[in-house]
DNA sequence: CTTCAGACCTGGTGGC
DNA sequence: TGCCACCAGGTCTGAA
């Protein structure tokens, strides 16, 4: 899936296209996404999109006058497709043309937004207003934004010191910090010289402080690069992100460690049902 | 309580 | 070429 940098890149690319556009037609496929049916989209009809927000890996489509909010999570394989082609503005046709498109919104004046997710691990919810957004269980459970002021060394130290789980599992827990996934956790841990398998409660304050800085810098660099394109992911305009060329550890088993003064070799191993990559020499 | 394996899905890849 | 096992950016559940 898109992790925070990919979702943020999509948000930035989409915003100028959809802002102030009115929704002229809607269609949904009768399939389950993340085990739940796609909500009725009728409340979106005639609504005007005013902003596109992001919280963790969630995209929030807001509409004018306190109207409904579409909450979208891209799961592992979700994408948002946009076409400004005025011929392609029938949402039902968009669903018929591609069996992995599960939601389509036609824009007044031409153009179409489609949510495509082959694996169907994504999530869609339509909330009636801002109050419902703050009550949404998954959103309410999210920890601080890693690029926000609340994500501090004090905070992270407090959240790590009480857990015997691995630091990697802890950082991937969205209630600790919102938006990190497998790739960026591993990248940040390499940057800060911490082994993914290290127990969270064995990490001191100074290392937490470095981790906060490292997480921020990895995310900022990735956003600047337009995210990472592996498999499905594309920017809003269909182009590719290029942060994957800057990976220090992810997918780099048996390659030399990228740290200049380190002669280690990147190791791959299964951890908590996922794959971890790290340098056994400089990550402790 | 916390932690972790398994389930949920499809598609792409690499081995035989 | 075909078949099959395995792997993939995430999240939730239930069991230990």
Short description:
With 284 residues, this protein is an alpha+beta fold.
H/E element string? HEEEEEEEHEEEHHHHHHEE
Uncertain runs: none
Strand content: 15-25%
Question: Main β-sheet, in a few words?
Answer: 4 strands, antiparallel
Proportion of helical residues: 25-40%
Identify the quaternary structure here. single chain
Structural class: alpha+beta
Mean pLDDT: 93
Roughly how many Å is the radius of gyration?
20 Å
- The total count of helices amounts to 8
- How far is the N terminus from the C terminus? 28 Å
Care to count the β-strands? Answer: 12
Note the overall shape.
elongated
Q: What's the arrangement of strands in the largest beta sheet?
A: 1-8-9-7
What does the model show?
By secondary structure, the chain is α+β, with helices and mostly antiparallel strands. It is built from eight helices and twelve strands. The chain has helices at 4-18, 91-97, 130-135, 137-140, 153-160, 167-172, 182-191, 205-224; strands spanning 23-28, 32-33, 36-37, 49-55, 58-63, 69-73, 79-83, 101-107, 112-116, 123-127, 267-271, 274-278. It has a four-stranded antiparallel β-sheet, with helices on both faces. Strand 8 and strand 9 form a beta hairpin. The longest helix is centred in the last third of the chain and has 20 residues, at 205-224. The radius of gyration is 20 Å and the shape is elongated. The two termini are 28 Å apart. It binds a DNA duplex (16 and 16 nucleotides) through helix 7.
């Amino acid at each position: 899936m898109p992790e925070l940098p990919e979702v943020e890149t999509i948000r930035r690319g989409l915003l100028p296209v959809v802002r102030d556009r009115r929704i002229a037609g809607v269609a949904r496929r009768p399939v389950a996404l993340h085990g739940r049916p796609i909500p009725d989209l009728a409340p979106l009809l005639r609504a005007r999109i005013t902003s596109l927000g992001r919280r963790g890996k969630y995209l929030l489509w807001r509409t004018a006058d306190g109207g409904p909010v579409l909450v979208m999570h891209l799961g592992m394989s979700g994408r948002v497709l946009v076409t400004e082609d005025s011929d392609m503005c029938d949402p039902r046709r968009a669903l018929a043309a591609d069996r992995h498109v599960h939601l389509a919104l036609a824009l007044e004046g031409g153009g179409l937004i489609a949510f495509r997710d082959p694996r169907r691990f994504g999530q869609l919810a339509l909330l009636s207003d801002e109050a419902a957004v703050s009550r949404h269980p998954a959103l309410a459970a999210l920890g601080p934004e890693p690029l926000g002021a609340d994500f501090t060394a004090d905070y992270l130290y407090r959240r790590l010191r009480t857990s015997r789980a691995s630091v990697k599992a802890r950082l991937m827990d969205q209630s600790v910090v919102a938006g990190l996934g497998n790739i960026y956790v591993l990248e940040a841990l390499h940057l800060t010289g911490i082994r993914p398998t290290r127990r969270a409660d064995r990490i001191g304050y100074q290392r937490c402080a470095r981790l906060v800085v490292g997480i921020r810098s990895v995310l900022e660099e990735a956003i600047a690069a337009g995210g990472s394109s592996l498999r499905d992911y594309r920017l809003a305009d269909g182009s590719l992100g290029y942060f994957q060329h800057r990976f220090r550890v992810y997918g780099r088993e048996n390659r030399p460690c990228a740290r200049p003064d380190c002669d280690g070799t990147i190791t791959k191993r299964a951890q908590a049902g996922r794959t971890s990559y790290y340098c056994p020499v400089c990550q402790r």
